[in-house]
Amino acid sequence: MPVGGGYTLAVVRILVSNDDGYHSEGIHVLADALETLGEVWVVAPDRENSAVSHALTLHRPLRLTRLSERRYAVDGTPTDCVTLGICQVMKDNPPDLVVSGINFGANMGDDVHYSGTVSAAFEAAIMGIPAIAVSQVLGEHFSFVPAGRVARHLAALVLKRGLPKGTLLNVNVPPRPPKGLRFTRLGKRRYTEGVVEDTDPRGRVCYWIGGGDPVWEPLPGSDFVAVAEGYTSVTPLQLDMTHEGLLASLLQDAASWDLPA
Ligand code: MN
Question: How many A from CA of 136 to the centre of ligand 1?
């Protein structure tokens, strides 16, 4: 503390969440990696919540369990966790940064719309707090350790430089230690087998969504291409999904869309 100043240096506060649940390896690697930057608070789902997107629990009460100092589990979604983290656990002094992950598996291209990992970061963006989502692309002999290093490096830069309001960084780390970093756009995935029909043990027809391996279009500059070439992809995303070009052309042609009087 500076002599006679009567104040303490503000400690950086980072909220960490995920969608794989509190017990996943990725969130522990992430929390440990960020400890060198400031005070890390973890508020995470008490079980796996992958692909729940931006779901918010409104029709039952939520339980917040304190596991240890600055470590909490919630019986809810990633969005519930970030909301409780900012508005309850850290309400006296909100976080400077929210980091979500490290997800077990990629969150690239169209998949960001299903991702609980990315939605946790979007919830922070809604609340005006800079956010980063970090995902580990799976492959033989992968380790979360390089992704932890990448997360700490990017978190330090975002804490220093900030991000524009309503934006976040979506980070995907390749299975082998990354050759470097590339700024990218969301790629395009082709869904090969959308729905698989099956019969359950009682003879009733049932369906599985999401069968088949993902096939990616090799779009230049996309997250998928960067990761396929061994680089970490960093895609800036925005909360405001308004399509400016379409809005402009609709406004120009508004009369022809209106109901006849
Ligand atoms: Mn997940």
Answer: 10
Reported pTM: 0.93
Average pLDDT, rounded, for the chain: 94
Report CA-CA distances (Å) from 254 to 198, 240, 244, 246. Answer: 47, 22, 15, 11
**What spacing in Å lies between the alpha carbon of 60 and ligand 1's midpoint?**
23
CA of 23 to the centre of ligand 1 (A): 12
For ligand 1, the distance from its centroid to the CA atom of residue 144, given in whole angstroms, is 14
In one-letter notation, the amino acid at residue 94 is P
Which residues 6+ apart lie within 8 Å of 16 measured at CB? 27, 30, 31, 34, 40, 41, 42, 43, 44, 98, 99, 100
Which structure tokens are listed for 250? Answer: 């609709």
Cα 255 to ligand 1 centroid, rounded to whole Å: 45
Angle CA(128)–CA(80)–CA(86) in degrees, nearest 5? Answer: 40
| Alpha helical stretches, state H, 72-115 | 78-84
Beta bridge partners of 42: 16, 71
**185-227, pLDDT tens digit by residue?**
999 988 776 788 999 999 999 998 876 677 899 999 999 999 9
Q: How far is the CA of 88 from the centre of ligand 1 (A)?
A: 24
Alpha carbon of 194 to ligand 1 centroid (Å): 20
